[in-house]
## 1
Amino acid sequence: MTPTYGDDVSSDAALVERFLRRDVSAFEQLYDRHSRIVYALVLRIVQQGSTAEEVVQDVFLQLWRNAGQYQSHRGPFVPWLLTLARNRALDNLRLKSERQRRREDQTEELPAIAQAPEYEKALDEKRRAEQVRSLMGILSAPQKKAIEMAYFEGLSHSEIAAALKEPLGTVKSWIRNGLLRLKEGLQTAS
Amino acid sequence: MSEHDQFRELIEAYALGALDASEKAALEAHLATSCAECAKALEEARLLVSQLAYLAPAVEPSDMLRARILRTVRAEAGEARPGAATSSRTSIPYWLWAGVAALLLLSVYSTWDARKMQREVAEVNARAAAELKQREELQRELTVVTREARILTDPASKKIEIVPSDKKIPSLEAMWHAELGIYVTGHQIPVPRGNRVLQLWLIPKAPGGKPIPSHTFAPDAHGKIGMMVDNPPDVIAQTKALAVTEEPAGGSAQPTSTPIWVGGIS
């Protein structure tokens, strides 16, 4: 799959390059461009407005203070930012629920994300959301439910199986097959 | 299915964070072997998983959150600039500093203005007090002059010539008004020696009566005398004569010297 960057992707990288040099206006543009999806994601995970604001503030201040963590050659900016936000929100959720399990992919050492495929080309937030929701609508209700429990609640296969009272193998299949269908759908749509 | 294929099937769930501990550990061990295919698949899986964020219901973050974050960022950006550390460390906006400075200036000006007004009020009060004192003095002088004039012009006043024992010095003259008092005048009167003063005495008609002390006085630089006794120690009908002696400063209760002037009341 040949990486093809759209205008937004490219300008995100350019803005990151600028705020690496402590350009506040570049940071402000990035915030205005992506704060809605970050806040929506975090609120969906933590389920509480004031907590969501705290987490979003942490995310963007970490972005500002450690802008060097993002390396444009290792992948597009938005997925990296969303991964950072999700990890922070789940950390907050786990801290509050006093769960013992800890994530090992800490936010300070975010993993590399693939170079942008076609579906990561410039799409504004609204169109991207419509596309992803549409594709998720194709999945079976259990597939969608299991994926959302894993993504938004940070639950493992076993925890989801226990919560849904379904066999572990079934849950694993739902999640894997559901994600593969989503991937195919995104590639086809692009 | 090969071991690699088995791990490959775990990649998406791993990117999602859904693997249980044992599977997760096993996959990470495999990834540590630098399996290029799995590493690439993992990057793509992470990108795919990040798209799930768009399933979250659309909501707008508050303007306050934006303001809070940008305020912090601007303050930290300011700290990074040489010479801007002090102003940015407190995160206080410049307009607020300007307001504080304006208030301080206003406060200093108000204090200065209040003190200036206090000084002006004190000066006005002092001038008013001085003018009042001067007015009272003038009023008192006017009262004396008026009394003198009435004594000197009222036909009811009795003129008494007070004659010196030494013919080389001029006489004194007294005008005694029963209600207004005694007014003594003189010209070219020699100044008493040392710290001595002249003192007026009322000599009673009663046999054996002792001289009654009255005011002390002295001529001015031109030898002029004008002395008012507005409340004589005795009445004219009971007084035989007026006498003037030279006494120590402050006067005496009894004459300590021979009278220089004596004037009989007929």
## 2
Amino acid sequence: MEYVLDVRGLEVRFFTYFGIVHAVNGVSYQIGEGETVGVVGESGSGKSVSAMAVMGLVEQPGYVTAGTIHFQGRDLLTLPDREWHKIRGNQITMCFQNPQRALNPLMRIGKQLTRIYVTHKHARVEESRCRAVELLREVNIADAERVMNRYPHQLSGGMCQRVMTVMALMCEPRVLILDEPTTGLDVTVQKQLLHLLRVLRDRTTASQMLITHDLGVVANICDVVVVMYAGRVMEQAPVEQLFARPMHPYTQSLLRAIPRVESRIVLHAIPGEVPEAMSLPLGCPFYPRCTSRMEVCEQFAPDLATVANQQQVAVACHLYGEEPNG
Amino acid sequence: MAELLCVENMVKHFPVRGDIPFLSKRVHALDGISFSLRANGSIGLVGESGSGKTTLARCIMKLERPDSGDVLLDGRSIYRRFGAEELRRRVQMVFQDPGGSLNPRFSAEKVVKESLLHLGKATRQEVRVRVSELFRQVGMRESDVKKLPHQFSGGQQQRIAIARALAPGPDILILDEPTSALDLSLQAQIITLLDTLRGDLGLSYVLITHDLSVVRQVCDELLVMYLGRPVECGVTDRILRDPKHPYSQALIGSILHPDPQTRDDRAPLGGEIPSAIAPPPGCRFHPRCPNRLDVCLKSEPEPTLLGDGATVFCHLYGDDCAI
Amino acid sequence: MTQNVVRAPDELTKLTAESEKHKRVTRRKLGFAFLVFRSNPASLTGLVIVVFVVLAAVLGPAISAASPDRTNVRTRLETPSASHPFGTDKYGRDVLARVLSAARVDLLIAMGSIGFSMAVGTCIGAVAGFFRGPVDTILMRIMDVIKSFPQFVLGMALVASLGPGVRNLILVITIITTPVFARMVRSRVVSLREMPFVDAARCSGVPRLKIILRYLVPNSVGIIVVTAALNVSYAMLDAAGLSFLGLGVRAPQAEWGVMISTGMNDLMNGEWWTTVFPGLALFLSVLGFNLMADGLRDILDPRMRR
């Protein structure tokens, strides 16, 4: 199957004064056409950094040290600047955390939106404006014309989030990356946003990559889920399968550790802490906290292995793999 | 069962910064909130932004003075009959941002000691013993006591904050979004800790949150707030299972369950929370309410006591309307 | 704006080795400071200059055996030579010795006045920022009044009324620099006091004075130190400038400003060393402190974010 975005073996390291941060440690996942893939992880999992790598935004002291990112047949990591400019913001776009701060505070919304379209599609300003207004209406911003003339600080958080989404959609991207889109939003506004994303997904063929730590968001809108921990992918599966039959001990522990609204349950808290990205142990990063751990887990980090003929299903755990040699 | 803490009709408005005093617009943070907490009980204050929950917490801790209303502790007004120090020996608070609630220059040990020093009456020796005991209670290692906040993870920072709150031996803890800033795998640790402590130490909790699953886990009762006004209150189970107020229904309907089977494609609640500077007249929820009646635009609903002990503030259930 | 991609294994090992080396350095105290300075050649230069100037001032007598004040008519206005590396002035005094002695004076005045204004300004700023309301208004308006005068002109007026001398100079420069600290500290305190740890301190029963002294001021150290470093050079210029005009330090005391002014006449006759050397010394010191201040700011700010 042809994937729109195919990340293999991605490694990103930050060479800081205090040591080397292994932010992303051999991450692979695939996004198909029109799919919504949720990348779930806690702090330090590397989910945001891997998205930055896809967008080509990894900056000093960070370096992409290994891996490939194939988009439409080309490895993005080998592209020169010129080519990146044609792709970033145009075919692959991103919505950042903290929408109010991600928008230029000194520029009116209208200008921010039209510039993108004009730059990438070499369109005229009027055409751009029309498109912007149209998209703003589609995301349920009633007085779109007025919003075009406003500045970001004059809009609420929910509005800014929608404006940013419009900005990311101006050029009809193939892949839309959303970094923690629901964090910080009120619950009712969150629901509106997800509803919006669903509507957009039905209308366009764009694929969405949703980065979040919220399993509820993932369960509600994603087709495929990628679970990351300490810079690695632990498990990848279609959403129903992940929640119903999680394979990796981390996923299983996580699902047992979150409180539910339906009823008071016995919470099985995961003992220990997320490891420091600067001092990652040799073997599987989840080893210290894993209830199903084995000796081999301490020595060798398991590879991400696809599961028997099922596409987009993979797990990185010795429980499912063969023992490595030596 | 005697009520330990009784909040009566709290009203607090803030002047909008930078405005001329008498032309003032005011932020209507709280407009008549009441609830009561019994000994060893726990109540959740649930609301979105602008609901006034944090302001309420600050008023109870005497970090702010309300414009009107009262808080009774053991039947006595905290504003008239309790000094600030005396109050804070009985009621303590755990803040939302664990890192921000610790002085970056103080070691974990010092943070907890401060509390003992100023609110407790103990000798040096007793202080050391108590600090060790508190750390043990919150699950911190003895070897970590000299470390600085930035050397700890969010979960550990929150434990230090809890230890600090427990130091003066309070009966009531106000927890302001205690798990919102934490990683998922650590949230359960803190929730479990809080549960254990409540049982072991006989504490009572006022838990402020927007996360209803935490409320389900920790609280016996709950009060839903919207724009500084009460909406619905009662036993947690009842309200979560069968919410009566349209806002409660929308809120509970907006919850994203970590379960793909419960995917819900229904249209979400429209509109946004209006500004607290100019709250809508009548029932504050009326602009977004799908069940709006004429009377809702004119007058604020009175509390209606429902059969199962819950109270709802909605004209749909008022005396003049049949349910 | 391409992102950094590293493929070649040797480049990778180089980056890794470098980072490992840095990690060893930052393990030790001040290691981070050292690395920041090293990566910023300008501020490193500044630091070196400052160290050099301070050492020169402190070790003055050891460097030049000559006395800065002993006159000798026979050796007046000699060009720089082996026995008098900076030459002699019109009274036969060794210029090098005088420059070194002046270094002590100027550094004393600058650091002294910055020290005092730092203390006073921090107090005022902290109190104003913490209490807000009328206290804040009154204190900051006083600071504004001082600040509304051009710094140097105010200095001139104050010295003229108080009289010359090192002590008065320190007092005057303290007065004119205090508002700078007061403002900086006040704005930092205003933002700090919104932080939860201040609320938490209040809830723990910590008295207000202690909150200011142990919670607010210690967390403002970064901005205080940077402000101090930036203003040392201004203080030095103020001291030298006022003395140059004859207010402040007066001849025959060795002070760079005074030396420049008395040496100006010699300049007409082609005897450049009596003016140029003190001038260079002043320039170098001011430059050094300014450059160093940049590095200090880098050390103290991002570290906070960590």
